[in-house]
Amino acid sequence: MQCWRLRGWMGGAAVLAAVGLLAACAVSRQHAEGLQAMAAGDRERGLAALEAASNAEPTNSQYRMDYLKQLRDGPAPQRAAGRGRKAAGGA
Length: 91
Known about the structure:
Layout: H1 8-39, H2 43-56, H3 61-73, H4 76-87
């Protein structure tokens, strides 16, 4: 007894769609894990995951913006120290 079978180009299209959906889910998970790592204070791991998600989906502007924002912002203590040095006339 045959329940269903992938035939011809429609079967190939269904397989490609399933693979694409799984890949998109993996990248989405990677992006979410990067944001969680950043929130937990693990900057190195978070930036790596956000960069990988951004590179995996270069047309996803949200992934790119999140990566660049986290890269720019950095940890709060480093930003405050940098502002203090700048106000004192340092570089």
